[in-house]
Amino acid sequence: MRFFSFARNCFVIAALASGLVSQPAFASDGERKTESKKGDLIEGSTFLPLTAFSVTVLRRFRVRGILSVSVELEVYNFSERRRIRKLRPRLRSAYNFALKHYANTRLNPKRPLKLRVLETLLQQETDKVLGDNIAGVMVANAALRKP
Predict the structure, then answer these.
(1) What is the pTM of this model?
(2) Could you tell me where the DSSP H helices lie in the chain?
């Protein structure tokens, strides 16, 4: 048992000495880069990425496709960032509901996606949850996969 702990300690020391452990990233002027958790706003950035949404397209109780949409929010008012972070679960719920309704009533799986319609739909939901002129919606990726 002592041999394994000794070997582990030797490996850690060797890894630190050789630089295998990652060092903090530095910007070109020597200052530390602002890092954030996935989904948080980075200082100086106006975009807040959200998780991708996947919705099943049903017609006559059969699956006709899967609609996948990746969304980013462009935050206009930086003082509202903390409130937007807190309201992300409500935004995701509103987006899921709106996309499910759109996929099962208005989406034709045989035709190409209309990104402008998706963007307008999600912008309306954003305005309902956050208020007007707080954030804009950008559809980063949208795809309809057919089985």
Answers:
(1) 0.69
(2) 2-18, 81-86, 88-105, 115-130
